[in-house]
């Protein structure tokens, strides 16, 4: 009865305090690979906005720029307009299938190495070890009463975390405006409010998520581990404890050999638990908290080396391989494991979307026309009895230079057009418009045609860029006349 | 359903005590930070209730310490907006209407502002697309009763048409030829025939030939010998394809018998001059706007008056 009201004590508590994790320093091939991935990803993150890319006089010279104000997305030689958002959608689909592909090939590698939550948590834990010492010193400090020394050490650590968090948030905004200009404005206090707000929010989220939430993000907040449990199968590469080799665990090899006790390779040294950044015991089997960062492999291999046993008591392995190994059969080769239908299908899908997008990018035209007919009124009868329709025509010049375009009509044989600002006397079948570089020209057009004809007559607006490239585009429209007797 | 709470061994967590077909629910503890977030949102809610209008009473509601109200916020926003617009509106006020097209920025603002004002004041008669309806002119076409240049449109909007309250109003009164006994019903039919020949809706007939003489005697003084109309008196062009009330025989018979005397309100004393200018710019932009009259044409028009 008391369990419901007692919120703090005992196994029946409804609310649980976070079990602090103090991962121990470790070295090994996987740790060094993690260092490399961290260096590469952080470098990409911080350096990319500062890369320059010459696009001529009419476009920004930042290599990667999400220009929200002008609704353009620049990535090196590629410029995406809002109506081409399907390229971004395609990239997102590729990212999704890419995650499936990576999962099917090498398991939760994203979680373990490349996820920003992992990278920044890792970075923060290095800061922690550098300032406060390794695991044991940290535990001592954590349990120590609040003295001035502890306060100083905590403030020191939080300051460095905040600095990293601020650099993280401060770099994010560089992707959305010209980085040198924005940074100058930022430090002069003249940047847009949204820039300061973004930096503040991202600084605080980085500080909280990397410094305090850490593995709880993976365990409670992130959907990906849940998806992973559905994605992994018996052929997925997961970090596995070879329990058939490790059990029963020995506590003291000398004692075991003296007493002739049959023991496994695991000496229960708890190194695998102590280095784990999410605080789990891998020997309990696959679990949602395991991000497959493989640091426990490094730790265990080192111990196995010290006690003269072969490495790999904890290792990357598939469930299928484990079963074969337990039965004493040879394990499946890595290549054969990779070249399974599931992986190949993901790869084919991923590549097909990529190739289709590259093809579309390579063949797209940088001119477009889109017309919207006036709906109210749909038509106007003029004094000579002829019928006039009005259209709002948008001509897009998606090249970084001003171009003259020729708007024309195909179909509607007796139709002539003139633009707002001209008069009917100037009407003709074609119209020259000057479209500024990288802009949309909005032009209201009037088309007049005889009163006799179908109530709805289809025709095509065409546009051709004058000059050497002769890019063309067209848009289907219709000309509306009053029904008979109106 | 018996309450059989027990500790689940693999997880070490208590069950909630429910069981369906062997499936039990674990009472997994929530993380404490989640609870703290929940408390924080309660504290926020209390702060909100204290600071902002929140509690309804029988009459009115609690005001909150911040004294915030959406009505005041709206007034403030509208005030800011009025201040923002003030320079360009005064520029429009200072520009004579006929010079407005020479200033594209002002003209564009005027067209947009006029469109907004049109939706409030004019759509009731002229329709939301300004296409009019029977008796209410279509403002999109190139046919104007009183003139389609900016200055004429401003005049028409300011003083209205056949408005008894305003002396300067656009006025002309077509006689009710049939009703007042000026023409007999048969003569009305002949005149209608001639008008329909003028507008190329009918072939010439004996009736229209009789009507020709009647037209010359009764109608040509306002509508002109070829029925081309006269804007000075607002007499419509009868030879074109546009009819305010309708060009069929029945409607024309009614028009000649009883006359048509459409009325438009005078907006000069309801709207400020800038709004009227903007309305004129908008109406002028709908596709039928005419160029400013040349000075010598104005002189001849005045000479004929």
Automatic annotation (TrEMBL), chain A:
<keyword id="KW-1133">Transmembrane helix</keyword>
<dbReference type="GO" id="GO:0046872">
    <property type="term" value="F:metal ion binding"/>
</dbReference>
<dbReference type="Pfam" id="PF13746">
    <property type="entry name" value="Fer4_18"/>
</dbReference>
<feature type="region of interest" description="Disordered">
    <location>
        <begin position="467"/>
        <end position="486"/>
    </location>
</feature>
<dbReference type="Pfam" id="PF12801">
    <property type="entry name" value="Fer4_5"/>
</dbReference>
<feature type="transmembrane region" description="Helical">
    <location>
        <begin position="33"/>
        <end position="51"/>
    </location>
</feature>
<feature type="transmembrane region" description="Helical">
    <location>
        <begin position="85"/>
        <end position="106"/>
    </location>
</feature>
<dbReference type="InterPro" id="IPR014116">
    <property type="entry name" value="Cyt_c_oxidase_cbb3_FixG"/>
</dbReference>
<dbReference type="InterPro" id="IPR051684">
    <property type="entry name" value="Electron_Trans/Redox"/>
</dbReference>
<dbReference type="Pfam" id="PF11614">
    <property type="entry name" value="FixG_C"/>
</dbReference>
<feature type="transmembrane region" description="Helical">
    <location>
        <begin position="344"/>
        <end position="362"/>
    </location>
</feature>
<dbReference type="GO" id="GO:0051539">
    <property type="term" value="F:4 iron, 4 sulfur cluster binding"/>
</dbReference>
<keyword id="KW-0813">Transport</keyword>
<keyword id="KW-0004">4Fe-4S</keyword>
<keyword id="KW-0249">Electron transport</keyword>
<dbReference type="InterPro" id="IPR013783">
    <property type="entry name" value="Ig-like_fold"/>
</dbReference>
<dbReference type="InterPro" id="IPR017896">
    <property type="entry name" value="4Fe4S_Fe-S-bd"/>
</dbReference>
<dbReference type="InterPro" id="IPR017900">
    <property type="entry name" value="4Fe4S_Fe_S_CS"/>
</dbReference>
<keyword id="KW-0411">Iron-sulfur</keyword>
<keyword id="KW-0479">Metal-binding</keyword>
<keyword id="KW-0812">Transmembrane</keyword>
<dbReference type="InterPro" id="IPR032879">
    <property type="entry name" value="FixG_C"/>
</dbReference>
TrEMBL record, chain B:
<dbReference type="InterPro" id="IPR050597">
    <property type="entry name" value="Cytochrome_c_Oxidase_Subunit"/>
</dbReference>
<keyword id="KW-0472">Membrane</keyword>
<protein>
    <recommendedName>
        <fullName>Cbb3-type cytochrome c oxidase subunit</fullName>
    </recommendedName>
</protein>
<dbReference type="GO" id="GO:1902600">
    <property type="term" value="P:proton transmembrane transport"/>
</dbReference>
<feature type="binding site" description="covalent">
    <location>
        <position position="222"/>
    </location>
    <ligand>
        <name>heme c 2</name>
    </ligand>
</feature>
<keyword id="KW-0349">Heme</keyword>
<comment type="subunit">
    <text>Component of the cbb3-type cytochrome c oxidase.</text>
</comment>
<keyword id="KW-0812">Transmembrane</keyword>
<keyword id="KW-0375">Hydrogen ion transport</keyword>
<dbReference type="GO" id="GO:0020037">
    <property type="term" value="F:heme binding"/>
</dbReference>
<dbReference type="InterPro" id="IPR038414">
    <property type="entry name" value="CcoP_N_sf"/>
</dbReference>
<keyword id="KW-0408">Iron</keyword>
<keyword id="KW-1133">Transmembrane helix</keyword>
<dbReference type="InterPro" id="IPR032858">
    <property type="entry name" value="CcoP_N"/>
</dbReference>
<feature type="transmembrane region" description="Helical">
    <location>
        <begin position="33"/>
        <end position="55"/>
    </location>
</feature>
<feature type="binding site" description="covalent">
    <location>
        <position position="125"/>
    </location>
    <ligand>
        <name>heme c 1</name>
    </ligand>
</feature>
<dbReference type="GO" id="GO:0009055">
    <property type="term" value="F:electron transfer activity"/>
</dbReference>
<feature type="binding site" description="covalent">
    <location>
        <position position="219"/>
    </location>
    <ligand>
        <name>heme c 2</name>
    </ligand>
</feature>
<feature type="binding site" description="axial binding residue">
    <location>
        <position position="264"/>
    </location>
    <ligand>
        <name>heme c 1</name>
    </ligand>
</feature>
<comment type="pathway">
    <text>Energy metabolism; oxidative phosphorylation.</text>
</comment>
<keyword id="KW-0997">Cell inner membrane</keyword>
<keyword id="KW-0406">Ion transport</keyword>
């Amino acid at each position: 009865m008391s369990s419901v009201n007692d919120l703090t004590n005992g196994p029946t508590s409804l609310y649980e305090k976070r079990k602090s994790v103090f991962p121990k320093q470790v070295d090994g091939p996987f740790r060094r690979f993690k260092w490399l991935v961290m260096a590469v990803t952080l470098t990409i993150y911080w350096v990319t906005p500062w890369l320059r890319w010459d696009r001529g006089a009419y476009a920004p010279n930042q290599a990667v720029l999400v220009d929200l104000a002008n609704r353009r997305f620049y990535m090196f030689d590629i410029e995406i307009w809002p109506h081409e958002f399907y390229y971004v959608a395609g990239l997102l689909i590729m990212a999704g299938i890419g995650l499936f592909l990576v999962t099917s090939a090498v398991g939760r590698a994203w979680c373990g190495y490349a996820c920003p939550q992992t990278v920044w948590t890792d970075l923060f834990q290095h800061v922690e070890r550098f300032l406060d010492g390794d695991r044991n010193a940290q535990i001592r400090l954590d349990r120590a009463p609040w003295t001035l020394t502890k306060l100083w050490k905590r403030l020191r650590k939080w300051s460095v975390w905040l600095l990293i968090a601020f650099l993280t948030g401060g770099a994010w905004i560089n992707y959305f405006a010209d980085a040198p200009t924005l940074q100058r404005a930022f430090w002069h206090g003249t940047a847009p409010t949204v820039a300061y707000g973004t930096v503040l929010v991202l600084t605080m989220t980085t500080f909280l998520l990397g410094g305090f939430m850490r593995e709880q993000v993976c365990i409670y907040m992130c959907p990906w581990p849940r998806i992973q449990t559905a994605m992994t199968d018996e052929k997925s590469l997961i970090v596995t404890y070879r329990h058939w080799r490790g059990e029963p665990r020995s506590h003291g090899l000398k004692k075991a050999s003296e007493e002739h006790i049959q023991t496994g390779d695991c000496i229960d040294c708890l190194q695998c638990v102590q280095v784990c950044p999410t605080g789990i015991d891998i020997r309990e089997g696959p679990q949602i908290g395991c991000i497959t960062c493989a640091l426990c492999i490094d730790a265990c291999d080192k111990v196995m080396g010290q006690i003269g046993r072969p490495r790999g008591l904890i290792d990357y392995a598939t469930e299928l391989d484990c079963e074969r190994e337990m039965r004493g059969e040879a394990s499946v080769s890595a290549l054969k494991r990779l070249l399974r239908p599931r992986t190949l299908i993901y790869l084919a899908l991923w590549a097909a979307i990529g190739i289709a997008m590259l093809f579309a990018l390579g063949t797209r035209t940088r001119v477009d026309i889109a017309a919207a007919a006036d709906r109210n009124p749909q038509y106007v009868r003029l004094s000579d009895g002829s019928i006039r329709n009005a259209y709002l025509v948008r001509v897009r010049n998606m090249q970084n230079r001003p171009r003259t375009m020729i708007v024309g009509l195909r179909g509607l044989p007796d139709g002539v057009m003139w633009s707002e600002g001209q008069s009917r006397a100037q009407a003709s079948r074609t119209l020259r418009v000057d479209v500024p570089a990288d802009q949309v020209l909005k032009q209201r057009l009037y088309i007049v045609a005889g009163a006799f004809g179908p109530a709805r007559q289809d025709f095509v607006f065409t546009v051709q860029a004058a000059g050497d490239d002769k890019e063309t585009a067209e848009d289907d429209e219709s000309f509306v006349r009053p029904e008979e007797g109106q | 359903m018996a309450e059989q709470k027990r500790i689940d061994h693999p997880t070490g967590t208590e069950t909630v005590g429910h069981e369906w077909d062997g499936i039990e629910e674990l009472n997994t503890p929530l993380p404490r930070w989640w609870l703290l977030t929940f408390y924080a949102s309660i504290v926020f809610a209390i702060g909100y209730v204290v600071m902002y209008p929140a509690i309804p009473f029988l009459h009115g509601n609690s005001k909150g310490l911040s004294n915030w109200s959406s009505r005041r916020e709206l007034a403030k926003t509208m005030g800011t907006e009025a201040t923002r617009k003030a320079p360009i509106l005064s520029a429009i006020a200072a520009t004579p209407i006929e010079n407005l097209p020479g200033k594209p920025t002002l003209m564009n603002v005027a067209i947009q502002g006029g469109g907004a004002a049109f939706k409030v004041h004019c759509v009731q008669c002229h329709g939301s697309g300004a296409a009019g309806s029977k008796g209410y002119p279509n403002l999109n076409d190139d046919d104007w009763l009183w003139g389609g240049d900016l200055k004429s449109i401003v005049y028409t909007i300011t003083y209205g048409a056949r408005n008894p309250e305003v002396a300067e109003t656009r006025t002309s009164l077509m006689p009710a030829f049939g009703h007042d006994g000026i023409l007999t019903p048969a003569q009305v039919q002949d005149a209608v025939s001639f008008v329909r020949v003028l507008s190329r809706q009918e072939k010439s007939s004996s009736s229209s030939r009789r009507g020709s003489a009647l037209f010359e005697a009764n109608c040509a003084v306002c509508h002109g010998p070829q029925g081309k109309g006269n804007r000075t008196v607002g007499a419509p062009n009868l030879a074109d394809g546009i009819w305010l009330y309708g060009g069929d025989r029945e409607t024309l018979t009614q028009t000649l018998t009883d006359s048509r005397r459409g009325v438009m309100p005078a907006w000069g004393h309801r709207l400020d001059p800038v709004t009227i200018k903007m309305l004129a710019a908008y109406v002028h932009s709908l596709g039928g706007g005419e160029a400013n009259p040349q000075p010598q044409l104005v002189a001849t028009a005045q000479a004929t008056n």
